[in-house]
Amino acid sequence: MIVNATEPVTLIGGAEVDKSMLDRARAVAPRVIAADGGADAALVNGARPEAVIGDFDSLSDWARGQLAPGSLHHIPDQDSTDFDKCMANVAAPLIVGVGFSGARLDHQLAAYNTLVRFAHRRCLLLGTEELVFLAPPELRLDLPEGCAVSLFPMGAVEGISDGLKYAINGLNFAPDGRVGTSNTALGPVTLSLTAPKMLVILPQTMMERAADALLSSRAVWPDL
Q1: pLDDT in the model for residue 136
Q2: pLDDT at 187
Q3: 21 CA to centre of own chain
Q4: What pLDDT does residue 79 have?
Q5: What pLDDT does 122 receive?
Q6: Which residues of the chain have pLDDT under 50?
Q7: Which of 1, 45, 75, 82 is the most buried (most CB within 10 A)?
Q8: CB 118 within 8 A of CB 95
Q9: How far from 106 is each of 65, 126, 131, CA to CA, in Å?
Q10: What confidence score (pLDDT) does residue 223 get?
């Protein structure tokens, strides 16, 4: 394990990152890690990553020159993404990822795939418009009435809910079947899921509430 933290960490990727987004993430997760070229975005926005992990195909010479050699962790494996490499080598109560959505749809979809494959990690991906995370087995979200809530299955999953306009009780979800997009919170929402397959999508303004919910949830998916 390259980073083994007892507090939340911010993980910076190579997609769009602005200082306000990074500052919000660091307020929740002060320690900074970068995935490959995310080190450039970190340095440009005044954050020095304590570790940079990846195959280094997008890390600039300029960024490399700003960082201590001991902070650079080169993993040349081409069968995994840089986000995969970080999720496999960073353990923390919560990882807040910025710079993993918005630039390329294929990279964004790959990141969602990674969330599911590393279900034992608590990770929230913050974008410019929305945030995405994998629901743990049990979750309580302190959402305001009228907040948009979307549930998107990455595999077969069932569950029960309280506080959603359209309850999910008794429904079978699958990526090629029923999905749960465009729901609405009536207030605080509780979810209970049968499998580590359900993505939760919220407005990015709910980041702090989502982070609190993930840190408060004691139920975890096993490391498969």
Answers
A1: 97
A2: 98
A3: 14
A4: 87
A5: 97
A6: none
A7: 82
A8: no
A9: 30, 17, 17
A10: 80
pLDDT at position 218 is: 87
Q: Which residues pair with 183 in a beta bridge?
A: 149
pLDDT digits (tens, 9 = 90+) for 55-105: 999 999 999 999 999 999 999 988 899 999 999 999 999 999 999 987 688
- Tracing tokens 């408060």 back to the chain, one arrives at 216
Strands 138-141 and 180-193: antiparallel
Name residue 59's amino acid: L
Which residues neighbour 105 within 8 Å (Cβ) at sequence distance 6 or greater? Answer: none
The pLDDT value recorded for residue 158 is 98
Residues in contact with 107: Cβ distance below 8 Å, sequence separation at least 6, in sequence order: 15, 81, 100
CB-CB neighbours of 123 under 10 Å:
25
Which structure tokens are listed for 101?
């959505």
DSSP three-state, residue 162: strand
Cβ atoms of 58 and 35 within 8 Å: the answer is: no
Give 172-210 as a DSSP string: EE-TTS--EEEEEEEEEEEEEESSTTEEEEEEGGGHHHH
Cβ–Cβ under 8 Å, residues 114 and 83: yes
DSSP string across 57-74? SS--HHHHHHS-GGGEEE
Residue 149 burial by Cβ neighbours in a 10 Å radius (0-12, 13-18, 19+): buried
Structure-token pair, residue 82: 């840089």
